[in-house]
TrEMBL record:
Organism: Merops nubicus
Ranges of residues in domain Sec16 Sec23-binding: 2-225
Any one GO BP annotation for this protein: Golgi organization
Entry-linked PANTHER family: PROTEIN TRANSPORT PROTEIN SEC16A, RGPR-RELATED
The organism's place on the tree of life at top rank: Eukaryota
Recorded family membership: Belongs to the SEC16 family.
GO cellular component, one term: ER to Golgi transport vesicle membrane
Keyword Nucleus annotated: no
Name of this chain's protein: Protein transport protein Sec16A
Length: 257
């Protein structure tokens, strides 16, 4: 019949239109035949598998030369988001795991950001992401490079511009390390400003942070404060008064102790 002929000759537009006028079983059969006619690595397959409630094959096969580019598959998932948020985030995170296993670190991290996996800590090796574009299985100094901290800070800033800004608690310790490096290079005013920004973030939810970090922040801030150009311009009595955020941080530190 016309339907079989259309499918036989690959005229899927005609076949699907005809099937839509028939019973639901026939329509489902034609849809399945059409999906099976596509190459397994076609990004459309990824969408169809996702829509049928299955994790797409692309999640565990991407990053392979024979499979092709991983990006169209991720794009298909992101541009066809449904109400099944759990499946979608697992699909993207698994894609990240697969790419990471093939050594494609930047690609894996991009997937983790899209899946909103969250930033973990360096000491926990099961963590998927600590600093963007840096491998946390490396020794600490090779891992925590200035470039990796700057990349992650750019992401943090982009997040702050969103409608639901959220901080990255595990990242604040790296910003503090960066502040220490600035101070060592003689950039005291910039280092002090970093301490202020970190402190204001810490003060929003102090229970997220290590007492050691809070103590180090206070120590560093009180030393760097004297190098702040704004303080040098003030009369001597005023220059002795600590900024409100540092006073609040000392109060939090006292409560913890």
């Amino acid at each position: 019949d016309a339907l079989e002929s259309a499918m036989k000759h690959g005229l899927w537009g005609h076949a699907l239109l005809l099937a839509s006028k028939m019973d639901s079983r026939t329509h489902a059969r034609v849809m399945t035949r059409f999906a099976n006619s596509l190459p397994i690595n076609d990004p459309l397959q990824t969408v169809y598998q996702l829509m049928s409630g299955r994790m797409p094959a692309a999640s565990t096969c991407c990053g392979d030369e024979k499979w092709g580019d991983w990006r169209p598959h991720l794009a298909m998932v992101l541009s066809n988001l449904t109400n099944n948020v759990d499946l979608e985030s697992r699909t993207i995170a698994t894609m990240g795991d697969t790419l990471a296993s093939k050594g494609l670190l930047d690609a894996a991290h991009f997937c983790y950001l899209m899946a909103q996996v969250g930033f973990g800590v360096y000491t926990r090796k099961t963590t998927k992401l600590v600093l963007i574009g840096s491998n946390h299985s490396l020794p600490f100094l090779k891992f925590a490079t200035n470039e990796a901290i700057q990349r992650t800070e750019a992401y943090e800033y982009a997040q702050s511009l969103g409608t639901q800004p959220g901080c990255l608690p595990n990242f604040q310790v790296f910003k503090f390390i960066y502040a220490c490096r600035l101070a060592e290079m003689g950039l005291a005013a910039q280092a002090f400003h970093y301490c202020e920004v970190i402190s204001r973030t810490v003060l929003k939810d102090p229970h997220y942070y290590s007492p050691v970090l809070i103590g180090q922040l206070i120590q560093m801030s009180s030393q760097l404060r004297l190098f702040d150009p704004q303080i040098k311009e003030k009369p001597e009595q005023e220059s002795l008064i600590e900024p409100s955020w540092l006073v609040r941080l000392r109060h939090v530190d006292g409560q913890i102790k």
